[in-house]
Amino acid sequence: MDAIQVMNLTFSYDGQNDVIKDVSFSIPKGSYTTIIGHNGSGKSTIAKLLIGLLPAKSGEIRILGKTLNEESVYELRNHVGIVFQNPDNQFIGSTVADDIAFGLENHCVPQEEMQAIIESSAKKVGMMEYLDSEPTKLSGGQKQRVAIAGILAIEPEIILFDESTSMLDPQGKASINAQIKQLHTQKDRTILSITHDMEEVAQSDFVIVLKDGEVAMTGSPMEIFAHAKEMEEMKLDIPFALKFSKELIKEKITDQPVCTLEEVVKQLCQLKSTT
Ligand SMILES: Nc1ncnc2c1ncn2[C@@H]1O[C@H](COP(=O)(O)OP(=O)(O)OP(=O)(O)O)[C@@H](O)[C@H]1O
Q1: Degrees (nearest 5) of the Cα angle 224, 225, 230?
Q2: Which residues form the ABC transporter domain (predicted)?
């Protein structure tokens, strides 16, 4: 079954100019999909449509097979967790621990299990020593970490990340991406991540490229990155590992392009063992 189905979705903020234009895509359950696109291509608008924060002008969204509408929206939100780029409006608790606890209470997690879950999710995002801090007094990156901890604690079936690691330093980003990947592989959660981070895109199963409110391309990361000209026209980069891999091919060291560092290392290790 598909976790998310978007069919001929159109949306306009002012009732006249469509910023999402007849968009259709399906996201299989348990997959890790990334959405990329230039600034203003409609990525965040799609995220808001998917959780019913904005009403579609036409078209249909199905979450876990159920049509998203005014009646189903609250029930469906129990299955979908979202972390926004700017989590300021998402905090409810007066401390980091309270905030994570609030999500757990909403999901009816027994009181006696809460403390352990709060601590383990805060630890995963490197925020253990901030459990008693006020979320509003944290830095942008720390706020993003707390918002992600809230999601890691609940582990909803579908998780939407809207540029939710954009304020993290490179190491923080890599470590959170590893946590997200783990949630996907070990817990079989469906991940949909809006991102500018091409290293993250390389790690995903499937990529949707938006251009001016339309789906410009879909495919595996390698299929998308193969469209170098279109990517450049949309001002989208390719991952460092793929650039490196292309240099290795130019130097006739390897012959297959790959887009993650792990794959480059694997190729080089295989070469070493055969020489
Ligand atoms: N609240 C709003 N009111 C009116 N227009 C809006 C609003 N929010 C976004 N837009 C417009 O809708 C279009 C899509 O914006 P959106 O924020 O979805 O793009 P995005 O791909 O997420 O961009 P970015 O990468 O810069 O975050 C843009 O043309 C933007 O100007």
Answers
A1: 80
A2: 4-237
